[in-house]
Amino acid sequence: MTTLVRKLGLSPSLAFHDVYSLEDPSLLAFVPRPVYALLLVFPVSTTYEASREAEDSEVSNYSGSGPKEEVIWFRQTIRNACGMIGLLHSACNGGARELITPSTDLSNLISTAIPLDPASRARLLETSPNIALAHVFAAAQGDTVPPSADESIDLHFVAFVKSAENNLWELDGRRKGPLNRGTLQPEDDVLAESALDLGVRKFLKREEKGQGGEMRFSLVALAPSMD
Q1: Cα(46)–Cα(162) distance, integer angstroms
Q2: Catalytic residues, which ones?
Q3: pLDDT tens figures, 95-146
Q4: Distance, CA of 224 to CA of 53 (rounded, Å)
Q5: What is the 3-state secondary structure (H, E, C) of 20-75?
Q6: What residues pair up with 156 in beta bridges, in sequence order?
């Protein structure tokens, strides 16, 4: 993940770090602060689908755009690209956006995407060869062959970020738009107790209850690099 976002233009001063616990202070202490984004990876479940459909049925399709938009959100229209969408949501919002190198793929993508509506942003990603090439490059660094667009993948990625207005946002390219999960204190980052309670913990508790106590997930934090 770090390889990919740096190749796209995110500053080497940031990196993704594994989060090994949401409850153990000694394990949470291993994560550098501040944390700019949390990226949750989990298997798609009937609980997730039911919750998504129920909540989305009560809201309209998001149509935000422009420089006053609190977060930049990308609708996922490319199959098996939820990981890429999650990485873009993490890197293109909150404090991380300020650490993107100018005149790079990421900075160019953001400047082009800001005035566009969500449908046009989705088409922008579909037609951005540098984004696709970076994804292939990052996948090639590991031992697993990247999935084809037609392959069925059950893992999904959801990002949690803090805006300049101190709101915690859940960003999921399969939803109708970005979801404001509540207000944080100015000094809180997205790994603060209040942010975890409003975001990741609440999400996982719902999943755990729906799965009868069983929950599989992984969590990474975008935070200062330890290099």
Answers
A1: 28
A2: 82, 156
A3: 999 999 999 999 999 999 999 999 999 999 999 987 776 666 645 554 444 4
A4: 36
A5: CCCCCHHHHCCCCCCCCEEEEEEECCHHHHHHHHHHHCCCCCCCCCCCCCCCCCCC
A6: 42
Q: Residue 123: what residue type?
A: R
pLDDT digits (tens, 9 = 90+) for 191-220: 999 999 999 999 999 888 887 656 789 999
Q: What is the pLDDT, as a whole number, of residue 195?
A: 98
3-state secondary structure of 120: helix
Tokens 């990741």 correspond to 200
Burial of 190 (0-12, 13-18, 19+ CB in 10 A): buried
Sort strands 167-171 and 155-162 into parallel, antiparallel or unpaired.
Answer: antiparallel
Sign of the dihedral through C-alpha 165, 168, 172, 178: negative
Helix count (H) and strand count (E) of the chain? Answer: 10, 6
Q: CA nearest 1: which of 192, 147, 157?
A: 157
CA distances to 11, 17, 109, 116, 153 from 222, in Å? 12, 7, 19, 26, 24
| Pair of tokens at residue 18 | 């594994």
Structure tokens at 169: 């946002």
Instruction: Return the half-sphere exposure (C-beta side, CA atoms, 13 A cut-off) of residue 186.
Output: 0
Residue 80 pLDDT exceeds 50: yes
CA–CA separation, 46 and 34 (whole Å): 34
Residue 88 tokens read as 């873009």
